[in-house]
Design goal:
Layout (H helix, E strand, L loop, with lengths): L8 H7 L44 H11 L3 E5 L2 H10 L6 E5 L4 H14 L2 E5 L4 H7 L5 E7 L11 H10 L3 E5 L4 H4 L9 E4 L14 E5 L4 H13 L5 H11 L2 H19 L5 E5 L9 H7 L7 E6 L2 H11 L4 E2 L9 E4 H5 L9 E5 L5 H15 L2
Parallel strand pairs: 2-3, 2-4, 4-5, 5-6, 10-11
Antiparallel strand pairs: 1-7, 6-7, 8-9, 9-12, 11-12
Helix pairs in contact: 2-9, 3-4, 10-14, 12-14
Amino acid sequence: MSDEKRLDPATVAAQGLGWIDEATRAIIPPIHVSSTYLRDPDNAYSSGHMYIRADNPAFEQPEAVLNALEGGAGAMLFSSGMAAATTVFLSLKPGDHVVAPKIMYWALRHWLLNFATGWGLEVELLDMTDLVALARAVRPGKTKLVWVETPANPTWDITDLAGAARIAHAAGARFAVDSTAASPVLTRPLEHGADLVMHSATKYLNGHSDLIAGALVTRADDDHWARIRLMRVQSGNVLGSFEAWLLMRGMRTLFPRVRSAAANARALAERLSAHPGVAQVLYPGLKSFAGHAVAARQMTGGFGGMFSIRVKGGEAAAIATAAHAKIWKRATSLGGVESLIEHRASIEGPTTPCPPDLLRLSAGIEDADDLARDLEAALEAAQR
């Protein structure tokens, strides 16, 4: 679509960049399942496709749409969010120093502490809401990557992206942002100084809890991006054709889904703040939340569909609350159309930084009053 820059991003997503199959005039793309492609008589590949691990035509539309939504210079799909994230770190060299948050997606945190260090990276975790601490932690010439997640799972801490980007760049480091919880509907990190944006596309980008995928978007099509692309090809961390087709289908409804979930989360957070069984609600949209002012500055159109509650009565009461919920489903993941509830400390184990009384909630697109009544009944049952 030649005039995509004049269109609202919601239109870009819903129209899929206006893609049309030239062979059939279909408005929905076909699923390409071939693993290999015919060479020309002179052994060239005039089609641009050689082998599915390197050049899958199923990637072209979803990568182009995501790149347009983030305002990047290129996008890549991966077999999972973890594959996308770890590829960024593995594109560095042994001995490089990286800085990442103490509060972040637990699987990546575990990988950094237990596998990236074995690769030879020097990993330092800190409170990314504290820019003074970040400025002290970076080492000019030695720190090669500053990684942040905002809002940060599962306490939804907010990092000042523009401030963190300035600190990273002053030290000569790249600045990467896990923007899974915000999605490009609410935050475009490249506009705030990020060099790379990562998404677990399993979550909001797809939004239907029926595939696993990851994505990266870059500010510049440079040597580092070329290295990441080569690593994707050589490691085989690629998405399947059917999964790419599902992801494109999901991305068409990204904006209405995220906006609906964010409206539900805000209404629920405000309502539960006054509930006698709740000790604290963690949600960037609440004025009482520590990172609210920063979130209001860099998030547009809402504060996301994720929030957490700390339950009075501690761990036992939190687990009992989840057990009594009926509409909210006890399941891992987030960003789907259905509402999910989870006691994170049980999942993450003894090394978790997550408080034992915390329940993580992913608001779906159901009726907000139904969701609220279900949680209130569960809280009351757990306190008996």
